[in-house]
Design goal:
Structural class: mainly alpha
Largest sheet: none
Distance between the termini: 38 Å
Oligomer: single chain
Order of helices and strands: HHHH
Radius of gyration: 15 Å
Number of strands: 0
Mean pLDDT: 78
Bound molecules: zinc ion
Length: 89
Amino acid sequence: MTEEPIGMTCEQFQAQLSDLISSGDNLANHPHLQSCSRCSALLADLRTIAEAARQLLPVVEPPDELWEHIESALKQEESSSRGPDQTHL
Ligand SMILES: [Zn+2]
């Protein structure tokens, strides 16, 4: 995290990410993605999850809530440490 990507920070980019995705723009051309491998990887993850969700759910147009849900799930995954204590079902 020593290099600041050009244009905007990762926080700013990720705040716009769901809007960018739902707008249908070609995100590969986004200047932030071209300078930030971290957000490129995040987008790849989102696409993988979205593909899986599309196959599981008979949803033609994924609602904005889906993206928010995916984003928050990713954030939880990043911040949560795997606790061996939580083994009860
Ligand atoms: Zn970034």
